[in-house]
Amino acid sequence: MTKKEDTMSRAVFSLLVENTSGVLSRISGLFSRRGYNIDSLTVGETENPLYSRMTVVARGDDDILEQIQKQLAKLVDVIEITELKSHTTSVCRELILLKLEVKPEEREKLLSVVNIFRAKVIDVAEDSMIVELTGNQSKVEAFVRLVQDFTIREMARTGLTGLSRGTV
Q1: Quick one: pLDDT at residue 2?
Q2: The model's pTM
Q3: What is the CATH class of 90-164?
């Protein structure tokens, strides 16, 4: 790890935005114009079809992350911004789908790992299985490490999504 990476923090921003065309483009454009990277981005309609919820994960030093939050707040499409700071004040999850090459004689070994992580087998073919897992990022990464004995043919991760705990 470089000295620069040591000072970098990760921030998870939950944005309530207007559900209109161009919102995603304006938000991602804000990041690219200023040279900020988006680690992950998820977006979907809320319980009210007029609004969408975006979860944006970014890295930077404290000044950069503060600047990102201020710039996001200036966008007219952004209704509300919440920084999801810790597992005590928020809930964050990620979904991963893994297509693993699995010989019939190896299925039991894979199924034992799947069961330990409370994952689901969602497709079985002659020589492969697709597994679905939802959890926090450390759980997802631990699962990926444990299935490295199998050949990972394809992997799709949603990126983080989250909400604040409580009624606020």
Answers
A1: 52
A2: 0.84
A3: alpha beta
How many CB atoms are closer than 10 A to CB 53? 19
Whether the Cβ atoms of residue 75 and residue 25 lie closer than 8 Å to each other: no
Paired strand residues for 91: 163
What architecture (CATH level 2) is domain 3-83? 2-Layer Sandwich (3.30)
Domain ranges in the chain are: 3-83, 90-164
Confidence grade of residue 6 (pLDDT, cut at 50, 70, 90): low
Q: Could you please report the per-residue DSSP string of 49-114?
A: TTEEEEEEEEEE-HHHHHHHHHHHHHSTTEEEEEE---TTTEEEEEEEEEEEE--GGGHHHHHHHH
Going by C-alpha positions, the residue among 21, 54, 53 that lies closest to residue 38 is: 54
